[in-house]
Design brief:
Radius of gyration: 17 Å
Number of strands: 8
Mean pLDDT: 95
Oligomer: single chain
Strand order of the largest sheet: 1-2-4-3-5-6-7-8
CATH architecture: 3-Layer(aba) Sandwich
Shape: globular
CATH class: Alpha Beta
CATH superfamily: Alpha/Beta hydrolase fold, catalytic domain
Order of helices and strands: EEEHEHHEHEEHEH
Strand content: 15-25%
């Protein structure tokens, strides 16, 4: 793993790069972090993707808010004061519009690497990153061939920047995994997203895992090992099909 700095419209974004052993070139995956920022569990995702044969870029989407200590999943949302800081200091600046501006810089960086196989890349995201992954697929359709979202929230809302509104622009194969217990992705939202992707003829699959929101993250109290392994199987199947074959 190496740490790099990527220039964006609004500053400099610390990012983490993972590469498989060997010389490449390898297909690339852009990972959109979850709502608790960069910490060991997010870095582990980069490591495993690289061990599966992918060049991985994991940017810190909270860079606009300045340096921060690793957040504690046990208190970040349950403590009212910490929750307020999280939403105002971190989530606010990491808006979909800002992150999509950043994503152009991320994709440009990936495209400039000699170790990266030319052509479209894959994306995956978790929690708020799941929203970003789908939004990126609709914002940069010619540059993203596969897009995954795991326990992503607000994927089909009444907001003008809701990802489902971008379905007509998407060219990627899309995979979405929600949780049985997830207030940010209830059944009616799942159906709304399904209808939008189907109407737009997007190659897609939406599934609901028997888990709670955030199940992939090992540092969350609701971590589910079996569903996390299912996540890896589905993610690698998506990426391998679109980027390796």
């Amino acid at each position: 793993m190496s740490t790099i700095q990527i220039k964006t419209r609004d500053g400099t974004c610390p990012s983490y790069v993972y590469k498989p052993s060997g010389t490449g070139p390898w297909p690339a995956v852009l990972v959109f972090m979850d709502g608790l920022g960069i910490r060991p569990v997010m870095l582990e995702i980069g490591e495993r993707l690289a061990s599966s044969g992918y060049y991985v870029l994991l940017p810190d989407l909270f860079y606009r808010s300045g340096p921060y200590e690793p957040m504690d999943p046990r208190t970040a949302f349950s403590d009212p004061e910490k929750r307020k800081v999280l939403f105002e200091k971190f989530f606010g600046p990491a808006s979909p519009a800002n992150v999509m501006s950043d994503t152009k810089a991320f994709l440009d960086h990936i495209a400039a690497q000699r170790e990266v196989k030319p052509g479209p890349v894959g994306t995956t995201g978790y929690c708020m990153g799941g929203l970003m992954s789908l939004t990126a697929a609709g914002t940069y359709p010619d540059r993203i061939a596969a897009a995954a979202s795991y326990h992503g929230g607000r994927l089909a809302t009444d907001e003008p920047d809701s990802p489902h509104r971008l379905a007509p622009k998407m060219k990627a194969r899309v995979y979405v995994a929600g949780a049985i217990e997830d207030q940010s992705f209830p059944d009616d939202m799942k159906q709304r997203l399904e209808d939008a992707l189907t109407s737009a003829h997007v190659d897609h699959k939406i599934e609901t895992y028997p888990a709670k929101h955030g199940w992939v993250m090992r540092d969350f109290p609701i971590y589910d090992a079996a569903c996390t392994e299912r996540h890896w199987q589905s993610l690698l199947a998506l990426l391998d099909a679109k980027l390796k074959h």
